[in-house]
Amino acid sequence: MKVTVTVDDEHRPSIHHVAEQLGLRGMVVDRVLPGLGMITGSVTAALLAGLGTIDGVAAVDEDLTYRLPSPGDAVQ
Amino acid sequence: MIEPDSSGDRPSGSAPETTGRFIVVFAETEADPPAFLRSAAGLSNVADSRDFGHGPVDPATAGDADATVFASLGVAVVTADPQQAGALRMSSDQSNIESISPELVHHALSQGTLSPPSALFQDTEHFTWGLQATGAATSPRTGKGIRLAVLDTGFDSSHSDFAGRQVTVESFIPGEDPQDGHGHGTHCIGTSCGPRSSREGPGYGVASEADIYAGKVLSNSGSGSDGGIIAGIEWALVNGCAVISMSLGADIAQVHPPYTAIGRRVLDQGSLIIAAAGNNADRRQNDFGFVGAPANSPFILAVGALDEQLDLAYFSARTLPVRGGQVDIAGPGYRVHSSWLMPDRYNTISGTSMATPHVAGIAALWAEATGYRGRELWSVLVQESSRLQAPSVDVGSGLAMAPQE
């Protein structure tokens, strides 16, 4: 599943280290975003719970999907 | 202090209605107001509220008196002839009295008779109704020097109305270039940053000289997910965009936690995310909907949609009753004319998606006019918005208004 990891404020300067730790626990990291302090990627359901225990991880949230109406619809 | 004309009723105009009596406010140092009234003004019949114990002052008893003293307040209501009034005025110079004022007649406030707004905007040959209603049509500000990001379905770079404009494009959708294959993104960019005058049809763009950052976070089929959207926000932030417009949302009745941290961190770094409240209401069926994610996050400005009469659009979502779930402001979001994919060039559609880029463009105008960023920019948008008759749960602080200087 696709996930977004929120890095806590204290660990934002060391976000790349947090990303390495996530990788070691089985997360496939797509993007490390230092400006926002977020890391996005994917992980299996079995390994999801393990991510939250990593130092510097404030939260792990499953991605939401967003869908626009078709271009012909009057209300967008 | 003595009021200049304390001799009774005022004849006309908006002057207050008075009784002919006076309200005397004693200095706090005056220990015995009844005695003072007897000695200074020669008032013989002085009623003292203390004589009524803990009960109310009996109007029948007090009505016969020349003066009624309310000891706890240090105030007296006095009936005085001109000579007595003159004596009291003299005494006020001796620091026994703070003020003597005519007693005013008060009325119960009548039921409000607020008339409905007579607003009825329509597109003209010069401007869309939205540019007129928000004052963007007459604003001397154009967003010049301000970077504005629209995170949506990309941008049609071949659109003739944007020839010569500074447009930076990027795609966060795997396998798709930044070219808009849907139309929604090009429409939102048109409203926020398009031209104020057009050779064909009305001018439709609010911040017509802003630098455009078009991030594609929704695919040509109109779908996307957090990973791409968050990457787009980071891109806008790193590129110094003061305003990030997001006409997207999921109908989720909870705050999605990543956007709480993101909204706050974006504000901390001098940018502002403006997002659509959502179209999940159908007020024709008494369904009021709710503000979805990410607009329901506490640090993201949520935008509702208005029609040409500045009434709420039937689809515009109502405040979600959680922290951050409120509609913060409203913008034109009904039958909005703007740019569309070539060769169609233009399209007229409705939605909180259309209201959002109006507010984003106006935010860019305020950013230019004031130099404000982040929380200060949020504040000035809300402060300067035009209040509406509609409930705040639907329109927040009202219609976003453009600076006029």
From TrEMBL, chain A:
Protein name from the UniProt record: Ketohydroxyglutarate aldolase
The species this protein was found in: Arthrobacter agilis
TrEMBL record, chain B:
Pfam families, per the entry: Peptidase_S8 (PF00082)
InterPro entries listed in its UniProt record: Peptidase_S8/S53_dom, Peptidase_S8/S53_dom_sf, Peptidase_S8_Ser-AS, Peptidase_S8_subtilisin-like, Peptidase_S8_subtilisin-rel
Keyword Hydrolase among record annotations: yes
Keyword Membrane: no
Domain Peptidase S8/S53 intervals: 143-387
GO biological process, one term: proteolysis
SUPFAM superfamilies xref list: Subtilisin-like (SSF52743)
Source organism superkingdom: Bacteria
Region (Disordered): 177-204
PROSITE patterns for the chain: SUBTILASE, SUBTILASE_SER
Keywords linked to the UniProt accession: Hydrolase, Protease, Serine protease
PANTHER family cross-referenced by the UniProt entry: CEREVISIN-RELATED, PEPTIDASE S8
Annotated protein name in UniProt: Peptidase S8
